[in-house]
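Narrative of accomplishments. A recurring question from our advisory board has been how the design workflow behaves on a single, concrete structure rather than in aggregate. To address it, we present the structure tokens for one chain from the evaluation set, followed by the sequence designed for it. No filtering or post-editing was applied between the two.
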């Protein structure tokens, strides 16, 4: 488990409205569903401060991470508390917050030693990313363990 993950509350996908209580829960559950992400019994709770807790079980470590990022990379969400149990024992990815001047090439070079592996980072973050050039400052990305090491 990641525990409490901080997100840039002012950055992220704008889904409209404030993320509090039942309305926030419904909005974030729809976002997860619209992205085709699922997990058995995944439950999303949003408190009055816009902090989210995600509980339940996910199909895999990868699905768990994607659900957390889909919920966290939304404008108005400042923190996601990870209480999801993955059904497999996959290796947890690292999380990376995008800073000014970064591209997937730069991020790939930092974690894998080669910028040319940027498509691995892109693929690891689909369906939240639609194009390798469409990342933004404050966005949290999955960086899977280096399988080529």
């Amino acid at each position: 488990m990641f525990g409490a993950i901080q997100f840039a509350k002012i950055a992220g996908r704008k889904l409209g409205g404030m993320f509090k209580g039942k309305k926030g829960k419904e909005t974030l559950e729809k976002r997860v569903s619209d992205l085709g992400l699922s997990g058995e019994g995944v439950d999303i709770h949003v408190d009055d401060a816009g902090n989210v807790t995600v509980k339940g079980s996910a199909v895999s470590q990868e699905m768990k991470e994607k659900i957390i990022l889909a919920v966290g990379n939304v404008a108005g969400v400042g923190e996601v508390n990870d209480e999801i149990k993955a059904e497999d024992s996959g290796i947890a990815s690292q999380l990376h917050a995008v800073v000014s001047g970064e591209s997937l090439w730069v991020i790939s070079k930092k974690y894998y030693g080669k910028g040319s592996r940027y498509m691995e980072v892109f693929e690891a973050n689909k369906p939240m990313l639609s194009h390798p050039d469409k990342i933004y400052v404050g966005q949290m990305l999955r960086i899977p363990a280096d399988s080529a090491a």
